[in-house]
Design brief:
Length: about 110
């Protein structure tokens, strides 16, 4: 499984960004897709995950601001990030779980004050 993320960038606090992650390869093995993030000097943390059945899980700090969705036809998972805060600044990593855990390259999200 290969994961290609896109959509990071620089935005002011209160703004929005949309991250996309396209999966290719052995996608039938994937049961869950989502996003982690890692800020400078901090451990990587789960941001949001979505199962094939539609169940979602969010870290408390993004609940109500971020929405994860999946475009099955395009094998893509999308993270819509609204009301962004400076503390959301991090490198965001797409991940997929199947036979094992797969990771995409990170995409930088920077939220300025």
């Amino acid at each position: 499984v290969q994961l290609q993320a896109s959509g990071g960038g620089l935005v002011q606090a209160g703004g929005s960004l949309r991250l996309s992650c396209a999966a290719s390869g052995s996608i039938l093995s994937i049961s869950t897709m989502g996003w982690y993030r890692q800020a400078p000097g901090k451990q990587r943390e789960l941001v949001a995950m979505r199962t094939n059945g539609g169940s979602t899980n969010y870290v408390d700090s993004v609940q109500g601001r971020f929405t994860i969705s999946r475009d099955s036809a395009k094998n893509t998972v999308i993270l819509q990030m609204n009301s962004l805060k400076t503390e959301d600044t991090a490198v965001y990593y797409c991940t997929a779980r199947g036979a094992r855990v797969y990771w995409g390259e990170g995409t930088q999200v920077t939220v300025s004050s």
